[in-house]
């Protein structure tokens, strides 16, 4: 079955050096001046009712040159908007993560388990607490309808930290990752790793899985207190 196909081969755990690079990359993104500017601008926009911020967002002039760039920057703003209430926890979370010897497949497996658990015991109260975030994610999901592939243009740390596992977007994102991890599917691959080895070590795909693992399993930044 698909699990043995994924996990059948012996894989090497993520190397310490790679781990550290991904960790500082994520941290640098969250701490950059540009990100912090977007966060403060975004929190102003999203404090308004949805109908109003939706209009503002549509008319917003961003720095992107072509259609895709503009679209990506607006998505980034929306994802950061989902993060603002958890900002400190996310930064603390990334900083506190220490090395663990674990393979990409093991991380992916943990994420699938999380998805299954969430499907079974979806906490309505948790969603209610995050109605603002839910609205933002709904808007984002509609935007992404025909351009889902553009979600991959955003930093792996941002998508992982911003999308909660109760959102349908999480399942869809994980589904895209699964397509890339499975060697037998004729999907366009997002990395240039050896197809026959079926191993992703320090590529973008491995980084995306690692980011999801770190934010959802390792430091539990998504849990509401
Ligand atoms: Zn790869």
From TrEMBL:
Q: Name one GO cellular component term.
A: Fanconi anaemia nuclear complex
Matching InterPro entries: FANCF
Q: List GO BP terms, alphabetically.
A: interstrand cross-link repair
Q: Which PANTHER family match?
A: FANCONI ANEMIA GROUP F PROTEIN, FANCONI ANEMIA GROUP F PROTEIN FANCF
**What's the name of the protein?**
Uncharacterized protein
In which organism is this protein found?
Noccaea caerulescens
Q: What is the lineage of its organism?
A: Eukaryota, Viridiplantae, Streptophyta, Embryophyta, Tracheophyta
């Amino acid at each position: 079955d698909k699990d043995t196909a994924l996990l059948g081969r012996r894989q090497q755990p993520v190397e310490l050096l790679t781990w550290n690079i991904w960790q500082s990359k994520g941290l640098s993104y969250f701490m950059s001046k540009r990100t912090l500017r977007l966060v403060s601008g975004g929190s102003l926009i999203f404090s308004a009712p949805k109908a109003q911020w939706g209009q503002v967002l549509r008319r917003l002039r961003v720095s992107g040159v072509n259609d895709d760039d503009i679209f990506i920057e607006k998505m980034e703003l929306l994802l950061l908007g989902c993060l603002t209430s958890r900002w400190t926890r996310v930064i603390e979370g990334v900083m506190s993560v220490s090395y663990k010897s674990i393979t990409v497949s093991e991380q992916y497996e943990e994420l699938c388990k999380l998805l299954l658990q969430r499907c079974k015991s979806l906490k309505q109260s948790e969603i209610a607490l995050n109605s603002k975030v839910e609205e933002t994610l709904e808007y984002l999901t509609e935007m992404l309808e025909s351009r889902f592939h553009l979600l991959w243009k955003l930093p792996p740390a941002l998508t992982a930290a911003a999308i909660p596992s109760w959102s349908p977007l999480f399942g869809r994102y994980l589904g895209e990752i699964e397509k890339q991890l499975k060697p037998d599917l004729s999907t366009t691959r997002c990395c240039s790793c050896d197809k026959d080895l079926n191993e992703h070590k320090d590529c973008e795909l491995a980084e995306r899985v690692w980011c999801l693992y770190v934010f959802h399993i390792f430091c539990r930044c998504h849990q509401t207190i």
